[in-house]
């Protein structure tokens, strides 16, 4: 009879601490040991050490020694007998044995031997330059370098390379730097204000160390000018202040046809102001504002630019980089429409 059944058979109307002590005192040592071993292994509230009974009742023979245990296991394994194979090992080759194909030997008859012709003598006596020309004519590009190939096509003498020549790089052609822009800014401002008839194009590109105030003076001088038709001011460090002064001049000036302010520090708002000013007179044909320091204009600015271009019926070219295809397509369609209208107008004048 188990301890639990024995405890269940006791008729206890109300279990208290005293009754529980009496019940435990009535149990033997073996029954108490059995009661201690009844644990619930799935009870997560108990620590792992208390979810199962302790079964290590054997008395230890001595302290734990890892090296001694490993030595005992090794000796024990050597003393045990290996498993006997029920089938002895025999070397067998399964499947078909691979036999390589024998190459067909071709026999050459005496009648098939090539006969020497006059071309063999000509090719043997040809110089290396003549062989290079022949390879170029026949299209053997892999046998020639680019220098040899183009020299043969252009009928130029070849002084280097050849079939026996070693591969080497072509000599670097040193191109001299462009001469610096020597335009006198002060004199240009004076000529713009005096409306000089000879100043039809003003180029200030790449002039270094021009102050923002001086650039603003140049833009303000364009306001009342009626001669200059092209204004270039690329890579001069212009900012939104310069763009604002230029936009104020474009609102009044109807003579300018091309304006170039690329490679500066004009933001998207400055570009929008330039297009708004160009829409007032609608006389500007080309506006270049690409490669500014703030490269990403944003969707809002690009859509505003597309809207302004759509309202302009005279602008033919706009130099700018769009990130979003919607704005780019709208601007391209409008510029094509303006070019088509100009073509129809020119064709109408020619026919009349």
Automatic annotation (TrEMBL):
Q: SUPFAM superfamilies of this UniProt entry?
A: RNI-like
Keywords for the protein's UniProt record, in alphabetical order: Cytoplasm, Cytoskeleton
Cytoplasm listed as a keyword: yes
UniProt keyword Cytoplasm, yes or no: yes
Predominantly, its location class is cytoplasm
- InterPro entries xref list: LRR_dom_sf, TMOD
Localization annotation: Cytoplasm, Cytoskeleton
What Gene Ontology molecular-function terms does this entry list?
Answer: tropomyosin binding
Mind listing the GO biological process terms from this record? Answer: actin filament organization; myofibril assembly; pointed-end actin filament capping
Q: Which GO terms describe its cellular component?
A: cytoskeleton; myofibril
Q: What is this protein called?
A: Tropomodulin-1-like
Organism of origin is Biomphalaria glabrata (Bloodfluke planorb)
- This protein's gene is called LOC106055285
